[in-house]
Structure prediction request, 146 residues.
Amino acid sequence: MANLTLEDLAESTGEPAERLRRWRSLGLIGRESPDAFGPVDVQRARLIQLLLRRGMTLEAIARADREQGFLARYIAETFPDGVRATHSLADVTRMLGMNADAVRRFWQASGSVTREISSTTRTWRRRRRSGWPSRRAFPRKRWCSS
Prediction:
C-alpha cells in the first residue's frame, strides 16, 4: 500500500474524497506527490480526524502544521521507526478469510483503532488457520440450573 489513489485513501480513512481534496489543498496530506498518497497520509488523515473530533477547526490544524510542522512532528513521535502500510477492513477480511463483522468485533475488543495488521492479528490468523478455537475447546457452560 505504498502508493494510494485518492479513492484508496478515502476507503482507508472513511473520509469522502472531496474532503480529502480540501485537506490536500491545505497541505495537510499528499505532500510527497499531488497524485499519490502513502501510509503516512493515512496516519495524517487519522490524526486530523481525531483533532476535528476534539473540536479543533481545520484552519487551526492547517495553521499549526504550516507554522510548527505539527502533524509531521506528531507522526514522527508516534511512529519512530516510520509509518508502515496499513490495511482496510476489506483487506484484512480477505487476508484472514473471515467475515467482516467478526474482524470488526476483534478490532473493537482488542482496542485497535489503526486497523493495522498487528502481531496480535497475525497470531489470530495463524490460530484460525489451524482450526483454533474449536467449539470443543470452549464448550458452552450452563450458568443457571433449570
Remarks:
- Residues 40 and 83 are 6 Å apart (CA to CA).
- The chain has two domains: 6-78, 89-120.
- The first helix runs from residue 6 to 13.
- The chain is about 55% helix and 0% strand.
